[in-house]
Task: structure prediction
Amino acid sequence: MHDFAVIGGGIVGLSTARALLKRHPGAGVVVLEKEASWARHQTGHNSGVIHSGIYYKPGSLKARFSREGAARLVEFCEEHGIAYEICGKVIVATERREMPLLKNLHERGRENGLGVEKIGPEELREIEPHAAGIAALRVPETGIVDYVGVAKAFAGEIAEAGGDLESGTRVEGISERGERVELLTNRGTFRARTLVNCAGLYSDRVAAMSGVTPPAKIVPFRGEYYELSPERRALVKGLIYPVPNPDFPFLGVHFTRMVEGGVEAGPNAVLGLAREGYRKADVNLRELAEILGYGAFWRLAAKNWWTGAGEVFRSLSKGAFVRSLQRLVPEVREGDLVPAEAGVRAQALKGDGGLVDDFLIVTGERSVHVLNAPSPAATACIPIGESVADRASEKAGSRWMGRRF
Result:
């Protein structure tokens, strides 16, 4: 019998388990992960950006947790010798019609407590000599980091604090038995007083399995990347972003220097044909049918069909992908790009066809479920983990079996 069982060994699940053990030393905490190692999905397939919080609605969980999370993430990396760099980024307007959006972003960044500043073409070229634009925002708080290294360090702290780490353990059924929750897995039954669901791409299914009706369904979006060839990495010094479409949750194709020295270009965002569909050829017919049978998906598609069509075209045409990049860095050529590993975003979609635009955490009788934690969840992983741990502690309450909080 464990006090807390956490499903999901990504950076949010591990952060939550770590927070539980810090709050309740000596508690029985187990992390169940279906893969053979940690951070194999969203955590291990992102570009490693430490987000500043400039894009998010002031007062939202994303805005609050990004600011706090970035600062605490840097402290953690310093303590554990994990590679990171606060290099800043530029958000570049290339057309006059983008100027009002750039102005709104500037104001939002200021509201969120950032030191964002508006710069002209000359200052932009000083920061990024090969970038082109009529104006830009410089966001000094943005950085890059090794998120897999952070997740592994979390796992190390959990083990040192007496927590149990169970990789290769797939949850196949959940049932409540009196004052406990039973989790049926491929490696036997685990029992806990409180369940925490951080299952990412499968978080809605785990919630339903535990008897909680999720208020949104996960729809996977594959983010497709290229990398600049080593001899062309000098075209990008740091992070170069376009002005994003405010009606779409993706930031547009951009350039990201990574901590190991490479430069990613992307992502292009298209519907994933499987929840873990990292390749274009990856198709799960059951999961695809589930998406196509969800009326909210068609409402989303009807509203954003033009943007979606552009993403699909760019997915099929490297030339179109390159032309999008050339708006930011005109010197980029097709031959400069080599295919890179894709990622899959677990995006929650509400029944009315609206995308959930903030972190979404719901509770059941003996459970807490993280149902929307895409980017910037990795940046915000420490405060998210503490928030989820607080809710799980409240659920444990009198069922703590005599332990003192």
Summary: The longest strand covers residues 216-228. The chain has two domains: 2-44+148-212+364-400, 217-358. Residues 2-44+148-212+364-400 form a domain with the FAD/NAD(P)-binding domain fold (CATH 3.50.50.60).
